[in-house]
């Protein structure tokens, strides 16, 4: 799939996409180019994982995981989710399909009881819903919202929400996780018709940040807690706000290994796109070619690791020497236990209100609330 030289044609419905991308959009505040070069230089502690054969994979270099979603990475990742072996998407979707009514009632201010449904907020609030979709790629985000508006005519184009309406309005927010946090912290998501903050600093409205797809578990539990505290302690979430987080808890090694298979053509295309984008970003095309995708389960840490192994010796820019056979880490996915997840939420100042699980009970959807405690 080549989407680097052929921009997507848009149908120009005039959907509302707010571009909040900063010059860096990273956790460190550095540019993406600087982050790639710092990571691939390595020089820090060496890490290792024991293979089933008893051998070791050692590494000290990495490439930021976010680079995999640049270019046409989002489209390529969606192609992976359609693979029958990629259980993560199906498992989380099955929870929504089974409990969609209950989840919707809770988010809209109603509560399910054994005697039926009890209304706990006015219908006016339930009919005034603003859905903001966050993504890294502007054109792809705009195109997806256009498609959503066509498929779901009951939704309201966020650009037109100044007109009287009753229902759910949709807009896009283009940026990284870190851009979005800054945007929310500064009181973002403003209704242009009234200049009234839709979510922050307006007690009439609650917000719910939805973090789905188990990308949350790219972080080690202690790092995940530190990351979530930025939401709970720095003004992003107010008391009474929610988060809806999906977490894959599967530790069936055969199932997990198949989901990220290094023999999968879809995964190989996705990884190659990331390398191509990294090479283009740093200005050295030698970074793009002659790598092999390697995927391994790390039993000791309870995580899955994705690498590329260099098929030859290479020099990236003037000062980065990568040996033939050397591994560079691209991504990791921790498979939390339920206790891991509950510990993360507790350390973050979030209270678990509900947990929904799939049939094998190895995937959870947690509804969390920031309380005043």
TrEMBL record:
rRNA-binding keyword on record: no
Record carries keyword Hydrolase: no
Gene3D superfamilies, alphabetized: Vaccinia Virus protein VP39
Family matches, as InterPro entries: EgtD_Methyltrsf_superfamily (IPR051128), MeTrfase_dom (IPR019257), MeTrfase_EgtD-like (IPR017804), SAM-dependent_MTases_sf (IPR029063)
Membrane-spanning segments: none
Start and end residues of each Histidine-specific methyltransferase SAM-dependent domain: 55-369
Superkingdom of source: Eukaryota
Pfam family name, one: Methyltransf_33
Annotated protein name in UniProt: Histidine-specific methyltransferase SAM-dependent domain-containing protein
Organism for this UniProt entry: Aspergillus arachidicola
């Amino acid at each position: 799939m080549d989407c680097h030289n052929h921009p997507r044609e848009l149908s120009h419905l005039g959907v509302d996409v707010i571009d909040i991308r900063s010059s860096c959009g990273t956790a460190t505040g550095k540019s993406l180019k600087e982050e790639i070069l710092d990571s691939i230089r390595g020089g820090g502690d060496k890490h290792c994982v024991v293979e089933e054969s008893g051998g070791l994979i050692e590494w000290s270099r990495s490439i930021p995981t976010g680079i995999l979603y640049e270019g046409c990475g989002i489209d390529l990742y969606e192609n992976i989710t359609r693979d029958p072996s990629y259980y993560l998407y199906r498992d989380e979707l099955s929870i929504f399909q089974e409990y969609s009514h209950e989840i919707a009632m809770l988010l809209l201010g109603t509560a399910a009881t054994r005697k039926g449904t009890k209304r706990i907020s006015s219908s006016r609030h339930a009919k005034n819903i603003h859905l903001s979709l966050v993504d890294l790629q502007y054109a792809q985000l705009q195109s997806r919202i256009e498609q959503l508006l066509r498929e779901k005519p009951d939704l309201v184009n966020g650009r037109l929400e100044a007109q009287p309406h009753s229902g759910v309005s949709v807009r896009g927010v283009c940026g990284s996780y870190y851009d979005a946090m800054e945007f929310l912290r500064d009181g973002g998501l403003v209704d242009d018709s009234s200049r009234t903050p839709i979510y922050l600093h307006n007690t009439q409205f609650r917000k719910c940040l939805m973090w789905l797809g188990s990308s949350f578990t790219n972080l080690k539990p202690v790092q995940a807690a530190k990351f979530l505290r930025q939401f709970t302690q720095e003004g992003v979430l107010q008391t009474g706000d929610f988060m809806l987080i999906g977490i894959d808890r599967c530790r069936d090694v055969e199932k997990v290994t198949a989901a990220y298979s290094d023999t999968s053509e879809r995964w190989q295309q996705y990884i190659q796109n990331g390398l191509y984008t990294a090479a283009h970003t740093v200005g050295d095309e030698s970074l793009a070619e002659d790598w092999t995708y390697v995927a391994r389960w790390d039993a000791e840490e309870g995580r899955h690791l994705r690498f590329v192994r260099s098929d030859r010796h290479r020099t990236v820019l003037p000062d980065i020497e990568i040996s033939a056979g050397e591994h560079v880490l691209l991504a990791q996915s921790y498979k939390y236990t339920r206790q891991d997840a509950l510990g993360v939420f507790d350390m973050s100042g979030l209270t678990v209100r509900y947990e929904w699980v799939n049939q094998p009970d190895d995937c959870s959807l947690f509804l969390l609330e920031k309380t005043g405690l």
